[in-house]
Amino acid sequence: MGPTALTSDLFVAASGIEPAAIDRVVPPACRREVDVSVAPRVDAGDTVLEGADWSPRRAAVHLLPSFSLLAATPPAFRFEVSARMDGVWSPWVATVTLGDASFPPLPSSAGALTADVDEFRATRPIDAVRLRVRCRGPLAGGWLMTLSAADDERADIGAPIGAASLAVPPLTQRTEDPAIALRICSATSVAMVLGYLGRAAAPAAVARDAYHAGTDQYGVWPAAIRAAAMRGVAGYLLRFPDWPTAAWCLARGLPIVASVRYAAGELTGAAIESTTGHLVVLTGYENDAVLVNDPAATTVAEVPRRYRRAELGRVWLERRGVGYVLFDPARA
């Protein structure tokens, strides 16, 4: 019997965005039914969205939340999660806050469940989960609340069938302000996808909106989704389970901002020799090559690259496989 493949579910609650449009941008291998019944409630002066109990198809250990509020000036918010393990619900655990607000204190860890800045991990399998988003202020605009839940099995880096190529405009982070240039790969990658969607934005502007002062980081994943939503572009975070799931997105015109990390020699022709965390844009695939816009390239002309599929699969899919998927809800 062969190894068990990784299972990744994407749970979705939404308002003001058609469920059919969401279905068209979520890979069927991960797609769960869109919940349109979640309504905001007020709790101690905060606006709270709380989803139903979500049960992954296979017990999960990785939880990755995201929230898109389609508003130019979104409220500050944080994610709060309670998970059921061995039939018992854990206390609520919270991530960092995105935006300027001070919420009532919640722990970042409770027993087997821990929040690490912007994601959750459990040391025991989770068979159900509750997610809520706590906002400081009203929700003026459509919104998308998602949770990617994945087990700890091995990702499949098998070859996708066919080919795809998306005309994502290249941008390099290297020409930005030297004080931040080497730190804004996430913002530059998001800016590339925004340009592809007809919502051009400068990397520095996206970086300003995505910056998290509490951790002094420009690469907090849901902060990137928040910055895109400020420009009318919805999105979600997903732990991709395999190459066919990524190929499904690319074949349907959806670039993927992929989080990679690698040591020297692991990614042939890489724009930087090694990294403990870097974001690139997957723009297509062809045979054994993956087409990538790498913002770490020295010049714009060097941004489009071809990386070996097997190597990129190892440094992306086998190292968590986290990706941002951004889309225009009006055109989806």
Order of helices and strands: EHEEEEEEEEEEEEEHHHEHEEEEHE
Shape: globular
> What is the number of E strands?
20
Q: Termini distance? A: 40 Å
CATH architecture of the largest domain: Alpha-Beta Complex
Major β-sheet profile: 7 strands, mixed
Strand arrangement within the widest β-sheet reads 2-1-13-5-11-10-9
How many alpha or pi helices? 6
Unreliable segments of 5+ consecutive residues: none
Would you identify the CATH H-level superfamily of the largest domain?
Answer: Cysteine proteinases
Domain tally: 2
Rounded mean pLDDT is 95
Strand percent estimate:
35-45%
Pairing-aware structural class of the strands and helices? Answer: alpha+beta
CATH class of the largest domain: Alpha Beta
Question: Explain this structure to me?
Answer:
The protein has helices at 19-23, 185-196, 203-210, 221-229, 243-251, 309-316, and strands at residues 8-15, 31-35, 41-43, 46-50, 60-69, 76-85, 88-89, 93-94, 109-110, 113-116, 119-126, 128-136, 143-150, 163-165, 234-239, 256-262, 275-286, 289-293, 304-308, 322-327. A hairpin with a 2-residue loop joins strand 6 (76-85) and strand 7. The relative contact order is 0.18. With 332 residues, it is α+β, with helices and mostly antiparallel strands. It is 15% helix and 36% strand. The protein folds into two domains: 8-150, no CATH class; 163-327, Cathepsin B, Chain A, CATH 3.90.70.
